[in-house]
Design brief:
By secondary structure, this protein is an alpha/beta fold. The protein has one domain: Arginase, Chain A (3-Layer(aba) Sandwich). About 35% of the residues lie in helices and about 10% in strands. The protein contains eleven helices and eight strands. Strands 2-1-3-8-7-4-5-6 form an eight-stranded parallel sheet, with helices on both faces. The longest helix is centred in the last third of the chain and has 21 residues. It starts with a strand and ends in a 7-residue tail after the last helix.
Length: about 400
């Protein structure tokens, strides 16, 4: 039996545009939608496309302060005289743009819509590729993120479902999910797990193994930092050592994932060395827990709120998220990118001309056809780093979960 899946999408996602030179390109989400559609993943009674509405202020204020909301609204309306920089606005990472509040509120609304669909039992999984802005803090923009839509979606689930509901948040972006961790650091009804490149080497410099929560939340914040040049095999090993055991012990009612693709070896901002095949191996691990296989899916299985995230190579992101959505729908994806989309992914020749599509070899694979060559010294260093992180998590966190 195929899962019931929803894709949350609006062409207005492109309003969240931080400028032509900014690395966060809205085109990556538009291309994801077009590629998913071209691969025929939106066909069938069990798949739907849902247009989101902007989240209301009370919903955004589940995570952010009212003063911060006023500052974002004022900055986006072009007002002057406020100390926007104190709120992280007007920086290189988070420039002020016209109608910034409205653009960010739509992203939040899309993640909340995904949450509503799964909570209401209308979908087993709902995917918002436009979201994943996991660095925004209660009263500060950070790391391209104005409002923290994953944290707000989770807070909305807790508000809607009431006491006793548990959510597991899994973040596979190369950057530490610091804003989501902060939002739930003192709570045990949300288990946050972030697998990321170590803050020794990458923004936001946090996400160490010893950040395990405080008070009631002690043991419910989990960080798995990895070394630069960590590849598919090692990443998957570390993930499987930590994440599935914790999920099985925690038994959440809902799983929320931030599916950033900046772990890819071609990403211009990070230093991990995964491919689409390694990425999908991790997505499959999540899907097995959240959805099960067709023969093993149970009514009590947690439903899945899937959200996009980082990824700054605009040809890698659409391919990766299309592959991920294929797993969410249970449908087989094609081996090659459909021809009507292929020019966007075809390597350019000198002078900017694209290769003509006229022979069998012109097919552009949906999966990576190549991978990185990692130096032997870095293979050793990354292995030792991952083993140390795994060992410390098992010592520090596992006892809180009876493991």
């Amino acid at each position: 039996m195929l899962p019931t899946a929803a894709l949350i999408y609006s062409p207005r996602f492109s309003d969240y545009d931080l400028g032509p030179s900014h690395p966060l390109k809205p085109i990556r989400v538009e291309r994801t939608y077009e590629l998913i559609k071209a691969c025929r993943l939106l066909r069938g009674a069990k798949v739907s496309v849902v247009a989101p509405a902007a989240a209301d202020e009370d919903t955004i204020a589940l995570v952010h302060s009212r003063g911060y909301l006023d500052a974002v609204r004022a900055a986006g309306a072009g007002r002057v005289g406020r100390r926007f920089y104190d709120y992280g606005l007007g920086t290189i990472d988070n420039p002020i743009i016209e109608n910034m509040y409205e653009a960010a509120a739509l992203i939040v609304g899309a993640s909340v819509a995904a949450a509503d669909l799964v909570v209401d039992g209308k979908a087993d999984v709902a995917f918002n590729p436009g979201g994943g802005l996991h660095h925004a803090h209660r009263a500060r923009a950070s790391g391209f993120c104005v409002f923290n839509d994953p944290a707000i979606a989770i807070a909305h689930v807790l508000r809607k479902c009431g006491e006793g509901v548990k959510v597991a948040y899994i973040d596979i972006d190369a950057h530490h999910g610091d804003g989501v961790q902060e939002a739930f650091y003192t709570r045990k009804d949300v288990l946050t797990i972030s697998v990321h490149e170590s803050g020794r080497y990458l923004f936001p410099t946090t996400g160490n193994v010893d950040e395990i929560g405080t008070g009631d939340g002690r043991g419910y914040s989990v960080n798995l930092p990895l070394s630069p040049f960590t590849g598919d095999e090692l990443y998957l090993w570390a993930f499987k050592e930590i994440v599935p055991p914790l999920l099985q012990a925690y038994q959440p009612d809902f799983v929320c994932t931030q599916l950033g693709v900046d772990t890819h070896y071609q990403d211009p901002l990070t230093h991990l060395c995964c491919t689409t095949r390694g990425y999908m191996a991790v997505v499959n691990e999540i899907a097995r827990f959240a959805l099960g296989d067709a023969a093993t899916r149970r009514a009590e299985s947690p439903r899945w709120i899937a959200i996009g995230g980082g990824g700054y190579d605009v040809t890698v992101v659409p391919r990766s998220w299309t592959l991920a959505f294929g797993r969410m729908t249970g449908k087989k994806v094609p081996q090659f990118i459909p021809e009507e989309q292929a020019d966007y992914y075809r390597p350019a020749r000198r002078g900017g001309a694209t290769t003509a599509a006229s022979s069998e070899e012109q097919g552009i694979p949906l999966h990576d056809s190549n991978g990185p060559k990692i130096d032997d010294d870095w293979l050793r260093v990354s292995r030792e780093f991952a083993e140390q992180s795994v060992r410390e998590i098992k010592e520090r966190v596992f006892p809180y979960h009876g493991l």
